[in-house]
Write the C-alpha cells for this entry.
Amino acid sequence: MDRRYRISVGRAGEFFVAYRLQLANFEVVHVDSSCDLHVTLPSRRLLRLEVKTALAVTKYGSYRFNKGGSDSDFYAMVALPEKKLRIFHISEMTAKSTLTFRPTDFTQQAEDDDIAKLTSLE
C-alpha cells in the first residue's frame, strides 16, 4: 500500500474520532507530534489520544491495528467500514505491537460506553 494512501486513511480516522468526540462536547485539537489528538475533558483535564485506523477486515475476519510507539494516554481504534470507534486507556493495551478486534467489537453501544468513560474522568 502506498505511503501517502496510508497517511490519508490515518488522517481520515483522526478526523472521524475528533468529529465523534466533538459531538460529545469535548474540545479536540489535531496535533502532529507524539500523539494525534489533544482532548480536553469537561473538567479541563487534557488527554493525549493516539488514533489507529483500519480500512478493511483481514482474511481472518478481524481488524488489525499496529500499535506504534506513541506515548499517549488513550488509543482510539477506528473501523472505517463500520463507521465506529473504540477507545482504550494505555493500561488496557497489553499487546506489544499488533492488536486485533472483530467487527462485532465495534457497536454503537461500545462506542457510547467508551466515550462515557472519558466523560467520567476527573
Observations:
- The chain has a mean pLDDT of 90.
